[in-house]
Specification:
The chain has 396 residues and is an alpha/beta fold. It folds into three domains: 97 residues, Translation factors (Elongation Factor Tu (Ef-tu), domain 3, Beta Barrel); 123 residues, NADPH-cytochrome p450 Reductase, Chain A, domain 3; 153 residues, Nucleotide-binding domain of ferredoxin-NADP reductase (FNR) module (Rossmann fold). 35% of the residues lie in helices and 18% in strands. It contains 15 helices and 15 strands. The strands form five sheets. A five-stranded parallel beta sheet has the order 13-12-11-14-15, with helices on both faces. The protein has a three-stranded antiparallel beta sheet with strand order 1-2-7, covered by helices on one side. Helix 12 packs parallel to helix 14, helix 13 packs across helix 14 and helix 14 crosses helix 15. Its cofactor is FAD. This is NADPH-dependent diflavin oxidoreductase 1 isoform X3.
Length: 396
Amino acid sequence: MITNQRLTKSGCGKDVRHFEFEALSSVIEYQVGDVLEVLPSQNAAAVDAFIKRCDLNPDLFITVQPRGIENILPDSLKNVSRLPIRLKKFVELTMDVASASPRHYFFEVMSFFATAQHEKERLQYFASPEGRDDLYQYNQKERRTVLEVLEDFPSVQLPFEWLVQLVPPLKTRAFSISSSLSAHPGQVHLTVSVVSWVTPFKRKRMGLCSTWLAGLDPQERVCIPVWFHKSSLPSPPPSLPLILIGPGTGCAPFRAFVEERAVQNQSSSIGPVMFFFGCRNEENDFLYRDFWLSHAQGCGVLSEDKGGGFYVAFSRDQPHKVYVQHKMQEESQRLWNLLSTGAAVYVAGSSTKMPADVLSCLEDIIAKEGGVTRETAVRWLGALERAGNYHVEAWS
């Protein structure tokens, strides 16, 4: 990590960060629209507490071997798979002890190892069909962690072999890449909302990966294990007209798109780009404000001179709420002009109502500006999607 910058105003209730990473390997390869998977580090105190609670020796060396696939491992990995690793390091890298909630089977197995009768009975109840609703309230709804559950049942002492199988694996977190490799050689940027929420019983929860990244100091040059992957947003050719809709952190991949188009614009002609962005307040969470406005001026990628445009919906800056679909309605004629000349539509952001609202809005615009029925507009957008020109990247 070389940059950790807060994009939202302090005290506004949202913490969105811009992170920049520099590759340690000589070459990295990715395209705009790709995603970066990050393996987070766990809280050291939580890992130590888990090891102490489970009465494990952190300095014990263990070997881990994949079961049943020994014969298909390449020779280069066969020896590596048998290398010993310290138990504490194994827990840190593979077992999610203080973020993920255990599965139903975890409680069933715990009931066999409980030595206190009242704990055994409660665990047996949780594991039974009658106790399913109460288990949901206790476990999933509160997002209790493995460590918290174990601390609630102190008489349970699970062998390490069982813990390895039962504790949820530490998983990578996927983020849309918000940079163009052409604009930032050897770097990759992310736009990340730091996740936090309060449970029904008023416990404050924090997202493991986003909180860890936000707490890192770039001066310490912390190494981050990452993997590059394709997403549902393919990299568009330079001449393809684009309609981009990305409220909130949904703007991340489109920052990469605009950077890429700006580089392409220096040597070739590019297609027009219309971008619809949305946030709550102009003062609090207008992410990358200067970046968008600079590219909307003169002959920039988002300029009207280039046939595109940049439009912002501030949902809370007036008595009535204004969302991206309202701005799209205001620009319905220009949207239709781009659509009718072969533009591709890209939508990114929250998976709640936004993607469906945007689709409905586009159906209205096509029906109105194209002079067709709503049913015809629905079929028109369906054909656009089948042709590979309607893409959605949504996350919860």
